[in-house]
Amino acid sequence: MPEARKRALILGDGAAGTIMANKLRFHTDPSQLEIKVIGNSVNHYFKPDGVMIPFGFKNHKNSVKPTKSLFNHGVDYIHDTVTSIDLENHSVRAGDTGEISYDYIVIATGDRFSTEDLPGYNEAAHHFYSLEATLELRQKLAEFKGGKIVVGQASIPIQCPPAPYEFTFQLDQYLRLKGLRQSTEIHYIYPLNRVFTMPNVSSFVEKLMEEKGIMVHKLFNVDSLDPVSKTLSSLEGEQVPYDLLILVPPHKGQKLMTDSGLADESGYIDVDRNHLNYRDYDNVFVVGDATNLPISKAGATAHFESEYLANRIASEVSGNAFFESYNGEVACTTITGGQEAITLFFSYSKPPRANFQSKSDYFLKWTSSDTYFSAMLRGIM
Ligand SMILES: Cc1cc2nc3c(=O)[nH]c(=O)nc-3n(C[C@H](O)[C@H](O)[C@H](O)COP(=O)(O)OP(=O)(O)OC[C@H]3O[C@@H](n4cnc5c(N)ncnc54)[C@H](O)[C@@H]3O)c2cc1C
């Protein structure tokens, strides 16, 4: 008797959900596995371009594609919002669709901006973490005539930890090109006692900041901001006034995960770091920014995790044993200014080394939206 066709359900249609679905389709026989994705985005925005678009270094039109066009043949995409998850009964509910059952579930719903955690944020701060905010910031920068710009992040964790320093280097470059660098002070605030989470990358970045005249405020954990006096205050008691505040908003996991009992108040889901299972459920997995894993919340992480998990589910579906584990491997290219970038390779056990920056790495970064939409999202790399 042939085995019944299994059902894989992927929640979330961003980087992790799309790569996961497309890779899994490549690895499995459609007669053995049905793949459904439920997601509620209309457009898929390539967020790394947020460190280029505000300066006119890239046109945002090349950074967006309709979400539904990004799934490979054989993936059933449902545009809807998931409202509850019931692991015991192997089912989820979604707005218009109602109940959907599964054999395997992969949660890839990313995280959200919790601006409610920082009163005054919406009136006072700008950011480059969504397309809408990035386009507003582009306008704000076009009107900027010099003064004091404060750049940083409201808290940890955030998506793509290097993005604030990448943005700051691009800002420095942009102001130089516009002839405004002499009349502008750039202040970079960071919550830790360094300028980046990973110590040896931090020392590399800090040296570059010093060379470029960027003023650094370490151990600056944002406590409050005052939109009237235009001042940012830290828990440590420091106050920094600003003319333009560019602050990455506080992040949390999705509230749905807290409400469904899968996560605590943080909204991030606790998973086995080597197997990506939720607790002892062997059919429940989490990938991408939705996890509480200590490695970077990055598209590159989602890519490596999906590679591992697609192989694992495919082996199970076809009745083969699978003994591999995910070792936290990630590779990502980050901009260091002056049209240069460094590529960082790391894993759970191997910290990254910031050896050298190059123009070819910058080119790699500049063209990465093309690689992303044509190959990475499609699951062919
Ligand atoms: C400025 C910036 C620069 C970055 N640079 C890099 C970089 O250089 N390299 C890198 O690797 N990464 C980078 N990243 C990080 C990368 O973009 C994210 O880590 C990646 O998008 C995470 O993918 P995800 O699928 O987990 O989450 P997302 O891409 O956020 O996708 C989550 C999806 O789930 C959907 N969803 C959420 N809740 C529900 C629900 N209840 N029902 C249905 N659908 C739901 C959402 O609509 C969304 O489409 C950057 C991010 C930013 C903001």
Give structural notes.
It is a single chain. The protein is α/β, with parallel strands linked by helices and 381 residues long. The protein folds into 2 domains: 6-110 and 254-330, FAD/NAD(P)-binding domain (3-Layer(bba) Sandwich); 115-250, FAD/NAD(P)-binding domain (3-Layer(bba) Sandwich). Helix content is 26%, strand content 26%. It contains 9 helices and 21 strands. The chain has helices at residues 15-27, 121-124, 131-143, 163-177, 199-211, 255-259, 299-317, 359-366, 368-376; strands spanning 6-11, 33-39, 43-45, 64-66, 75-79, 82-86, 91-94, 98-101, 104-107, 111-113, 147-153, 184-189, 215-217, 222-226, 231-234, 239-241, 244-248, 251-253, 284-286, 330-337, 340-346. The strands form 7 sheets. It has a 5-stranded parallel β-sheet, covered by helices on one side. Helix 1 packs parallel to helix 7. The longest helix is centred in the last third of the chain and has 19 residues, at 299-317. The two termini are 36 Å apart. The model has no long low-confidence stretch (mean pLDDT 97). Flavin-adenine dinucleotide binds next to helix 1, strand 2 and helix 7. Residues 12-17, 38-41, 47-48, 50-51, 81-82, 108-110, 128-129, 159-160, 163, 254, 256, 288-290, 297-300, 302, 332 line the site of flavin-adenine dinucleotide (FAD).
